[in-house]
Amino acid sequence: MDDFLDELYPELTLETDDIIMTLAIKKDYSKIEDFDKRKEEFIKDLNDFIKEFSETPESDDFMRYYDD
Description:
This protein has helices spanning 2-8, 35-54, 57-64; strands at 11-15, 20-24. By secondary structure, it is α+β, with helices and mostly antiparallel strands. A hairpin with a 4-residue loop joins strand 1 and strand 2. The longest helix is centred in the middle third of the chain and has 20 residues, at 35-54. The termini are far apart.
């Protein structure tokens, strides 16, 4: 199944000291010709994604993982 998704969507792995996150990018950013605007749109979408996730029950469930 992962091979199928690789063909449909490009993947991006982001890594910091604390988090490794692999994203499948569904939006086609190639329609934005200007590089800086394309990057700005992607970062905006990424921030929106994080904000949306933070408001879901799944984010609460994940934080409960660290409870005793």
